[in-house]
Amino acid sequence: MATKDMYLGAVDLQCETNNTEHHTIEIEKDRLLVRRGQEFRLRVEFKERAYLEGGDQLAMFVHIEDAVYLPDEDLLQEYILNENGLLYHGSYTNIYTLPWNFGQFEKDVIDICFQILDNSLSALKDPLADVARRNDPVYVSRIVTAMVNANDDKGVLLGRWDGNYADGIAPTRWTGSLPILRLWSGSGAEKVRYGQCWVFAAVACTVLRCLGIPSRCITNYSSAHDTDGNLKVDQYYNSEDYSRIPSKRKDMVWNYHCWLEVWMTRPDLPPGYDGWQVLDPTPQERSDGIYCCGPCPVKAIKEGHVDVKYDAAFIFAEVNADVVYWLVNKDGSKQELGVKYHQVGKQIITKSAYTDEREDLTHDYKYPEGSTKEREVYSKAGMKIRSANIQENDLRISIKYAQPILGSDFDIYFSIVNNGFMDKDIHLTLSATTITYNGFILTQFSKRSTTFTLKAATVQKEVLRLKYRDYGEHLSEHNLIRMMAVLIPKGTSEVSLKECDIALNLPRLTVKVIGEPILHRELTVQIKFANPLPIILTDGIFSVEGTGLTHLQEIKSPTAAIHPGQEVVVNVSFTPNKTGLRKLMVDFDSSRLHDVKGSTKIIVRRA
């Protein structure tokens, strides 16, 4: 601001009025926080004499960076202003939701976000250069993806996937970003233990929404982790018992994987790449020497432009890699069973901007599976089609089941079809294994082999019953079971293989509001939990959290032992400090049952 023949007196930024109009009043009322694409007012007073309109000249120089402007009010309400969201877990055949509290408008979050930026490697190396680049969302978002994980720097979260969380908090316990960010900030930037992909993505979403970058959480079902950049995942099986052999390169297909999309222009790229960009803060592979991923245009992924910045080849493989199956003989030699072209990227979803329903984004990332265009894009991305699809023989296997509930015994139904013109003597092996959501094999707890003659153009039905007493103690916190069927016709080298991942349903907590929600007046909610397992649960604890309602509270179960079928009821009280539509998230954990969730919407009004 420049003046001539006068001296500047006071400048009133009118913080409370501007912040109210710019939807930032919940963050701060004593500092000016304004958003792009909207006017704001300043009051300037001059000393010595009054401003003479028509005689004096006042010049104001304002620089606006508008690279993340999203010209749709409904989308802004969801991707910037919504403090509550839904994440997606399970499997593509059984998708279930996880409510999440982003809490980007809590008063201390804006300062924590700048603390995160200030602790980045770039900022510590050259603070002035770092600050000068903070108007660039490409730079800022890349810094955030590196800083949300703690692998290379003073980042927020340490990842762990082995089930051993005794020295921290299990990833499934979190219901929101605020406790994580506050733990990190309050400890002087000490890493918080522990996170997994959805936690990394949700925390990054909080930071980016707080900084004004439109963001949404994405779940990709059957997500490939390609470690060597050849756009394929190799799966190896022992020829003697057909058990899975871990790949030395650690190629994996995760049952699901969560990342982010952020909205921005890409002036650093050729035209055509503006819009939604992929960011992935989960530490999987290094990019430019550190664990971060993106931003990468979704459009580049769909078209197979894997040379586009940043990390396009890795993300392309996550949604479109081919899976190659190998049989490893006793002498170490390998036999290729075939290739599955449609195993990866089964469904890519996010929460709708308009409702609590999910929105399918698969078509934004890839052309229809099996289409000529999809194969053309894959070839263009750098991988020629190598061999025929697995099961290109006369035998077909299908696996069906009624959606099972954790704690129950249930049946898996296998259908083996002989589409050929000759009878075949078949050796069939059925097995069930517990797995983690990122594809690691835990324990094979059930296996059965049988031999039969399958006549031409007929179907053989087989049933495998899985009992809780067999699988219960071997489950990971993700409650996933992998079924596998292997068919070998006698006298041939043909092998038909079929896998299916089953996500066991968890019970839901019942949450009931008692009384009327009034601002600054104590409110009580009642939470009910019934033990669905045929075993006694101990060490039960409820966690309650909600933006504008209550900070994280933990309440022990009123009974030390919860017997099968027993119902436990707890009451939790808190005082709402914000009006409007709020969401309360509840979690229950115990010795043998984890990640039981519940939520309720609460409309808080003034007295």
The best one-word shape is globular
Read across the widest sheet, the strand sequence of neighbours is 12-11-10-7-15-16
Question: Spans of 5+ residues with little confidence (pLDDT < 50)?
Answer: 1-6, 384-391
Helical stretch tally: 13
CATH architecture of the largest domain: Alpha-Beta Complex
Question: What's the level 1 CATH class of the largest domain?
Answer: Alpha Beta
Mean of all residue-level pLDDT scores: 90
- Please state roughly what percent of the residues sit in beta strands, choosing from under 5%, 5-15%, 15-25%, 25-35%, 35-45% or over 45%: 35-45%
Q: What count of domains describes the coordinates?
A: 4
Give the CATH superfamily of the largest domain.
Transglutaminase-like
- By DSSP, the count of extended strands is 32
Structural class: alpha+beta
Cα(first) to Cα(last) distance is: 44 Å
> What is the C-alpha radius of gyration, as a whole number of Å?
28 Å
Main beta sheet: strand number and arrangement? 6 strands, antiparallel
Helix percent reads 10-25%
Q: Can I get a quick summary?
A:
The chain is of the alpha+beta class. The strands form ten sheets. A six-stranded antiparallel sheet has the order 12-11-10-7-15-16, with helices on both faces.
